[in-house]
Automatic annotation (TrEMBL):
Annotated Terpene synthase metal-binding domain residues: 31-66
One annotated GO molecular function: magnesium ion binding
Originating species: Paspalum notatum var. saurae
Record Pfam families: Terpene_synth_C (PF03936)
InterPro entries named in the record: Isoprenoid_synthase_dom_sf, Terpene_synthase_metal-bd
Protein name: Terpene synthase metal-binding domain-containing protein
SUPFAM superfamilies tied to this protein: Terpenoid synthases
């Protein structure tokens, strides 16, 4: 998929698809041939860049809240070591 993104300028059809590729490659949009998460969000929802940024921001906020809720849970075995 990474090769298709780079060589063909492929933009994943959803944010979920983009994140699966991004997590494997751990690359930022340093190369204009790689679609960004914003590009994928715009394509998936057929929205402007501004709306896509808001949607991605909401996803990031929810992710941090979920992470913190799990980390701060007193039943979390990792947290109890600290």
């Amino acid at each position: 998929m990474e090769v298709k993104m780079r060589q063909e300028g492929y933009i994943p059809k959803s944010v979920e698809e983009h994140l699966k590729v991004s997590l494997r490659t751990a690359r930022k949009k340093l190369n204009p041939h790689f679609a960004s998460t914003i590009d994928s969000c715009m394509k998936e929802h057929n929205v402007s860049i501004e709306v896509a940024r808001e949607k991605i921001h909401a996803v990031k906020e929810k992710s941090w809240k979920d992470f913190n809720a799990k980390w701060l849970n007193p039943d979390n075995p990792i947290q109890s070591r600290y």
